[in-house]
UniProtKB/TrEMBL annotation:
InterPro entries: Alkaline_phosphatase_core_sf (IPR017850), PEA_transferase (IPR040423), Sulfatase_N (IPR000917). This is Sulfatase. Coiled coil: none annotated. One of its GO terms (molecular function) is phosphotransferase activity, phosphate group as acceptor. Keywords: Membrane, Transmembrane, Transmembrane helix. The chain crosses the membrane at residues 20-41, 53-69, 81-101, 137-159, 179-200. It comes from Porphyromonas asaccharolytica (strain ATCC 25260 / DSM 20707 / BCRC 10618 / CCUG 7834 / JCM 6326 / LMG 13178 / VPI 4198 / B440) (Bacteroides asaccharolyticus). Residues 261-550 form the Sulfatase N-terminal domain. Pfam families: Sulfatase (PF00884). Gene3D superfamilies: Alkaline Phosphatase, subunit A.
């Protein structure tokens, strides 16, 4: 045992000088990465200044650790595999930082890593296609990365080749070589120990503070810390929960319909007061909806109101069986997706809103409660609205065809959320301050915003036409609505006063495909009767279950 251990340590000592090129390469790559982050977060000081000392220490420790790991592996093939994995990992994080700093003004962290490495293969592809970085810049950075890897490797190869062609070394040379490698081995181990203790101390401080100082950590440390902080915040805010699951014993189906679609199209911040189909005073910004209403293909509900003025509560009470104004947490009740799944439906969530929403949000939990989900918008938040944001029509490419199983699909759209100036393609900018109709006087800038809002509604009208074209040949119930209405005293964009009885009003438009009307002839009459009374969106689960012949008896 002792002899084997001695033999192993001799092998480690021999590999220490052989892999010095790896230490140099890691230091070079990490330095390039640090310069990228410094250009974003610490422009006032030079790279070798006292301000950047924590980052330099962390970089040296990280490079030393990645250097020591392969030297401790005796098996040559395994050692080479580990070398390749380390180089690929560090290079990938560096390249990702180049992308993310240019796009999000933030480096690689766990909040960004989750959507990039999503389960949907098209998400990562769409993310890279949307960046549109300058090729000369990326080529220069790529050349730097290749030089950082292959220059130390080439120098190491030349030195080893020179040694092989050199004459037999003298005893003095052998002694110097033996002692120098031993000294290097001790320095590396002691240095890694000191730097590791310093790193653990920095990690503890950063995690306990709950704030990550990106300019004080190398890439792997930054990723590790961001993951810990993200999980800590999610646990503290109770964001990593899941709604209660409905059991098959609690769900019964009265009438088993042939395979059909139930589609919920939820567009943020679409107000009926500024839609021509609800308010004829405004510009004709809903031509498709108007024509479908005249033909009888659409049913418009005039007295539907959001479940709450709070967006999170409105979503919770709209998409679950939690009663409106209930003091209980909404996740103690099953969502409509759990109920429909127990009734034999496939459930699908398609989303063009940011992947991680600001503040308390229930949409991520609702999406996770579906059998499948797809996010076409990979941004982490609303922090930087640019023309790179996918338009809502990005969801059209991810719609699913009806097969042998009925499907409940939710399509969550940005609508008019946040900056409306980036919400639509240029060809839908139909209205301007000169053509925007309203019944009160507005200033020029206010008219610009009102006209752009009309354009957003006009774009939503066209998107609805494309959704109907996709589903019209299959049995489909399609419901278009907005989750939260206007609750302020003055109406957004138009500036006129909101009557108390209309506060929180939301649009709700119902479409039955011809095939759906054939398999359920009484369905249209049931929907027309809904206009006889006032509703809020917390009634939506019961409406969907009644239309689908589903009954729930919660235990």
């Amino acid at each position: 045992m002792r002899k084997a251990l001695l033999h192993y340590l001799q092998g480690v000592k021999a590999r220490i000088p052989q892999l010095v090129w790896l230490l140099i390469a890691m230091l070079a790559i990490l330095t390039l990465n640090n310069l990228v982050i410094r250009g974003l977060l610490s422009r006032s000081a030079t790279y070798l200044s006292r301000e950047n000392l924590p980052l330099l220490w962390d970089t040296l420790w990280m490079a030393t650790l990645l250097y020591i790991i392969p030297t401790l592996i005796p098996h040559r093939i395994t050692r080479r595999v580990v070398l390749i994995i380390e180089l690929v990992l560090i290079s990938a994080i560096h390249i990702m930082d180049l992308y993310l700093v240019s796009t999000y003004q933030m480096p690689y962290c766990d909040a960004i890593a989750i959507p990039i490495f999503a389960t949907n293969p098209g998400e990562a592809s769409g993310f890279f296609k949307s960046l549109r970085l300058e090729m000369p810049f990326m080529l220069i950075e790529g050349v730097k990365l290749l030089v950082a890897i292959f220059l130390p490797l080439g120098i190491s190869w030349l030195i080893s080749r020179t040694k092989r062609t050199k004459e037999q070394p003298t005893p003095w040379d052998k002694r110097i070589q033996r002692y120098s490698s031993t000294l290097l081995f001790i320095v590396v181990l002691v240095g890694a120990h000191i730097l590791g203790i310093n790193y653990l101390r920095q990690t503890r401080i950063a995690t306990s503070a709950g704030v990550i100082q990106y300019n004080a950590h190398a890439p792997l440390a930054r990723l590790y810390l961001s993951h810990r902080v993200l999980r800590h915040d999610a646990k503290r805010c109770a964001l990593d929960y899941r709604p209660r699951q409905a059991t098959p014993q609690e769900v019964t189906v009265d009438s088993l319909l042939p395979p059909h679609n139930v589609v919920l199209v939820v567009a943020e911040n679409i107000y009926p007061h500024l839609m021509h189909c609800y308010n004829p005073i405004v510009n004709d910004n809903t031509p498709v909806i108007d024509s479908l209403l005249q033909m009888g293909s659409f049913i418009r509900l005039d007295s539907v109101y959001s479940a709450s003025d709070n967006a999170a509560l409105a979503a919770a009470w709209t998409f679950s069986l939690c009663p409106k104004d209930s003091p209980n947490s909404w996740d103690t009740y099953p969502s409509i997706y759990s109920i429909f799944r127990a009734a034999g439906y496939d459930t699908y969530w398609l989303d063009n809103t940011p992947r991680i929403a600001r503040g308390l949000d229930v949409y991520p939990q609702l999406a996770a409660d579906c059998d499948d989900h797809f996010f076409t918008n990979l941004r982490a938040d609303d922090q930087d609205w640019t023309s790179r944001i996918p338009y809502d029509d990005a969801v059209l490419d991810q719609l699913k065809q009806l097969e042998s199983q009925s499907r409940l699909t939710t399509i969550h759209l940005l609508g008019a959320r946040s900056n409306i100036w980036w919400r639509i393609p240029e060809e839908f900018c139909k209205y301007n301050r000169l053509s925007a109709n309203i019944d009160i006087d507005l200033s020029g800038d206010a008219l610009d915003h009102l006209a752009q809002y009309y354009n957003v509604v006009y774009y939503q009208d066209d998107l609805l036409k494309q959704l109907i074209a996709h589903y019209q040949d299959t049995p489909t119930i399609l419901i278009y609505c907005s989750p939260v209405g206007a609750y302020s005293e003055w109406h957004p964009y138009s500036g006129d006063q909101v009557a108390p009885e209309t506060r929180g009003q939301v649009p709700m438009l119902l479409y039955l495909s011809p095939a759906m009307q054939r398999i359920s002839p009484t369905l249209r009459d049931q929907l027309l009767q809904l206009n006889a009374e006032r509703h809020n969106l917390s009634d939506l689960p019961q409406l969907l279950m009644r239309l689908s012949g589903i009954k729930v008896s919660l235990s």
